Amino acid sequence: MRRRASETRSVAELSTPVRSGRRIASSFKTLVALVSLLLPLSALGAQRDHQLRWIVPPEPDVAGYRVYLALASMAYGGGTDIGFQSPDPNGVASYLLTGLDGDTTYYVVMTAYDAAANESVFSNEITIPPLACDPAECNDGNPCTTDTCSGGTCANDPVPDGTLCDDGNPSTIGDECSLGICQGNVSACSLDAECDDGNACNGIETCASFQCLAGLPAICAPSTQCMDSSCNPASGCELTPVADGTACDDGDLSTVNDACFLGICQGTLPECTLDAQCDDGNACNGT
Q1: Which residues partner with 83 through β-bridges?
Q2: Which of 153, 186, 219 represents a domain boundary (last residue)?
Q3: Number of domains in the chain
Q4: Which of residues 186, 204, 232 is at a domain's end?
Q5: Contact between residue 17 and residue 120 where contact means Cβ atoms under 8 Å apart
Q6: pTM above 0.70, yes or no
Q7: How many C-beta neighbours within 10 Å does residue 71 have?
Q8: 28: how many CB neighbours lie within 10 A of its CB?
Q9: Are 139 and 154 contained in the same domain?
């Protein structure tokens, strides 16, 4: 019995074996997958159902159908007898494949058979691809979970307890994961010096009731035209001169070519021999 090769069209006609001088299910045509339904997670990963739909042959001697499922194209073993499936008013029958693994690609064909067990050749082959999801959508921003995408479903499983992490609290030490949550321990102390985290930008940590308390973050002076303001963890707030020659405005209308020099904005007085050469054209500034 020869099998027809898979077709790329959505409708593929199937030939059938000859029985008693005529064919059975000679007009058995379409096998089209239309619906995928995701089921709850199981030990094998995400499972799902998949609905098969096909046009029912008009011959009255079609007694039932068989579904063949494989993990490789045209590598089919025994089929599953699904019996006769009654069509809807449009002549389309359907069958629900259940318990399919969401991470696996499946290949499916069908056959029709009559009461004497004469079976048609395979239908056109369809592929049921694995479910998919965007790994970026699975990132929960938690350092204590492993984010994965399996069978179209995101999973955020806890990392092993004791995995190092950072809870973002400078007052805690020994931060580590526990049941998927990053937790630190409030350090015991007797002196303020024992609470110093070594970062001047976090302020001065203190010890109260044998527990370290976070300090107030440093508030640094704003930058100026000729000085950049920043906080150095080792020394605290710093003002750093910008490059000499950086243009600025010293606010003195009688100077020109204002520029930064060693963190100070300085201008030069223009040279003149007559009062008229010093007129800035603004009577409001005086003579």
Answers
A1: 65
A2: 186
A3: 3
A4: 186
A5: yes
A6: no
A7: 10
A8: 26
A9: yes
pLDDT average, residue stretch 201-206: 89
Which helix or strand (DSSP H or E) is residue 19 part of?
strand 18-19
25 Rama class: left (phi>0) / alpha (psi -120 to 50) / beta: left
pLDDT band at 260 (very low <50, low <70, confident <90, very high): very high
Q: Does the pLDDT value for residue 13 go beyond 70?
A: no
Q: Quote the DSSP letter at residue 136.
A: G
The span from the CA of 125 to the CA of 74, in Å, is 8
Quick one: which H or E segment has residue 62? strand 62-70
Residues pairing with 67 in the sheet: 80, 110
In degrees, rounded to 5, the angle at the alpha carbon of residue 141 between the alpha carbons of residues 139 and 143 is 110
pLDDT at 42: 34
153, part of any domain: yes
Confidence class of residue 80 from pLDDT cuts 50, 70 and 90? very high
What count of other Cβ atoms lies within 10 Å of the Cβ of residue 65? 28
Does 43 share its domain with 22? yes
Note whether residue 85 is domain-resident: yes
**Predicted confidence (pLDDT) per residue in 100-140, tens digit:** 887 788 999 888 888 888 888 888 888 888 777 766 778 88
Tell me: pLDDT of 221 over 50. yes
Q: Are 242 and 260 in contact (CB under 8 A)?
A: yes
pLDDT of 286 > 80? The answer is no
Rounded to an integer, what distance in angstroms lies between the CA atom of residue 155 and that of residue 40?
Answer: 13
Tens of pLDDT, residue by residue over 143-163, are: 899 988 776 678 888 999 999
Look at residues 19, 20, 18 and name the one whose alpha carbon lies nearest to residue 2.
18
Cα gap 145→156, rounded to integer Å = 5
DSSP 14: -
| CA R_g for the chain | 40
Picking from 206, 198, 204, the residue whose alpha carbon sits closest to that of residue 233 is 198
169: domain range? 132-186
